[in-house]
Give the backbone structure.
Amino acid sequence: MRLLSLAFSLLLTTACARQQVSVTTPTTPPEGPNVAGTSTPAPTSANTVDPVYARVMESDTTHRPAWLKARIAAVLAERKRNPITRILSYQYDGQTVYFETAPCCDQFSQLFDTKGRLICQPDGGITGRGDGKCPDFDKKKTNEKLVWQDPR
């Protein structure tokens, strides 16, 4: 019996050894801008994973009502949030509004009027759609300006 088991192991090892797999990596770059054919672009070395804003915005410090200055002071009195807090101004439904980004994970962002009254929470929450009171905010907002961003 032991001889039979040894013979089977030897047969199995020999059969598997005959099936070799060879992996090669091309060492020469593709000719032209495309890798294969006309629809596949050549890979680039640029890192596209790091989140970076498309443009660097300068803060608009000229129109900060007293309530907004107090709100900024309150954020600075807390520990730093991740992601950091940003406040942007927009034109929405014919008025200037202030949008404060959500502190984190499934929390609501907030949209205020010029007097500091909460208009709605346009996004965030479990559904990501906010409180539903201004579902058209993303489509109708214009004239984006960065008012403040946590510098820490």
The CA atoms of residues 38 and 83 lie 41 Å apart.
